[in-house]
Amino acid sequence: MSLFDDRVREDAAYKRTAETMYEFLDRVSIPELAFPRSMLDTWFERWPADDREALRSRLMAKDRANFNGAFWELYLHELHARLGFTIERDPDLPGLRTHPDFLLRRGDTAFYMEATVVGVADQVAARRRREDLVVDAINGAYHPDFALRLYRIGLGSQQPPRRAIIDAVEDWMSTLDWDTEIARIDSPPGDPVNLHVRGTHLFVWPWPRAQALRGKRDAPTVVTRTGDGGIVNVAAAILDNLKDKARKFGKPQEPFVIALLCDRDFATDSDIEQALFGPEVVRVSAGPGGPRSQPELDRDPRGFWQYGTSQRATRVAGVL
Hints:
Layout: H1 21-27, H2 34-46, H3 52-59, H4 64-82, E1 86-89, E2 102-106, E3 109-118, H5 122-139, E4 146-154, H6 162-173, H7 178-183, E5 193-197, E6 200-208, E7 222-225, H8 234-246, E8 256-262, H9 269-277, E9 280-283, E10 286-287, E11 290-291, E12 296-299, E13 306-307, E14 310-311, E15 318-319
Parallel strand pairs: 3-8, 4-7, 8-15
Antiparallel strand pairs: 1-2, 2-3, 4-6, 5-6, 9-12, 10-11, 13-14
């Protein structure tokens, strides 16, 4: 079984917003992208034969979380195979119905490994999938002289038809004048235009195409898109995921390692440190008259490995 179909590919279009990574790689004809297809096929051939069909189904899934989980397991399998480990998939644990993803052995060394992915909440992922369908529809609209900057999408209760979105965008762009818009391209954009399509609102600004791109149908219609706002707390999501995995397999006889892939837009090394060891804090000695010392950066030990003076997660030998 091959991961990708062996066929002639003739579609060199950009990755569509709602298109999965698998769909894009399987479709695109750009020569440089033949290499990742070949590489992933080679990794796939080394995956246990009795589980290849299930893994391929997960990689082909429309759900990004399914793809990421399957890819992460495939990557870890390939990594440790190259490091000289023999790999047992879904090993049994005495007295438990749950199975870690791998039992890895090399010489006298053996350990269990569980792969996990920290993504966005299900409701956020569902909203993003709906928004991606809208963005793909907008990119289906065409005007020879104009693209647009997408500020925000206000989703309605029902997904608007693709044709309705295309018509609304093309009708609006047909009212624009290229000379007028190019003259004020460096000015503040002002309030975005609100295009109302069957209960969904598209907040957009016009973008006059550069001379070299005027009349080119393969140039995307959406040239920029504003990202999500709000408070980002990646460390808490990582910590919750690790705590859940730490108690999933009892007390295994061999060391137990959690391999975590963080699929979050704003994750940093600091988020990982705070999840494992606790949040950074600023401490200053104070009395009735005010501060007695200069502020010092410290760490509040409320992470995965420690809570106050107590050790935590002693069943877990390491986090990758």
